[in-house]
Amino acid sequence: SSIRTIQSIPCTLVSTQSTWDALNCSNARPRNWKLEYSADGIVWYLLREHIDDTTIDSPQGWGDWDIDKKLQQPAHHFRIIQTGPNSNGLNFLSVGGFDIYGEIAPFDCIT
Fold first, then answer.
1. pTM
2. pLDDT (tens digit, 9 = 90+) per residue, 53-65?
3. Which end of the chain, N or C, is surrounded by fewer C-beta atoms within 10 Å?
4. What are φ and ψ of residue 51, in 5° steps?
């Protein structure tokens, strides 16, 4: 599997939505992956899991997904873990852009 970690954001974010840009990845669109978050970069929690997700269906495609309200927790770290093959049947994670949207939370709300 492939793992990409987005770390050290300069604030605490309670994520509400994620967006992925395939950036001309005509044969390597994501299909199977997990988005995880962490307060400390050591213990990770699931925000969203994608299994055979065909939302991104074109070479310049993009997709966005809401985060379940009950999973919205303050975090400093986010990571993407590929859990299965892409649209080309390979274990290759291609990311043109990835955004996480949410609300800024106080630093002291993470224990």
1. 0.75
2. 998 887 777 888 8
3. C
4. -125, 120
| CA–CA distance, 19 with 33 (Å, rounded to integer) | 13
pLDDT, tens digit (0-9, with 9 covering 90-100), for 7-40: 455 455 666 677 766 655 557 788 999 988 888 8
Please answer whether residues 86 and 59 qualify as being in contact, where contact means their C-beta atoms are separated by less than 8 angstroms: no
Report the C-alpha gap between 44 and 7 in whole angstroms: 12
At 103, list the tokens. Answer: 């609300």
* pLDDT, tens digit, 9 for 90 and up, residues 62-79: 888 888 877 777 787 888
Alpha carbon distance 80, 13 (integer Å): 16
Dist CA 72 CA 57 (whole Å) = 27
**Residue recorded with tokens 């990835």:** 98
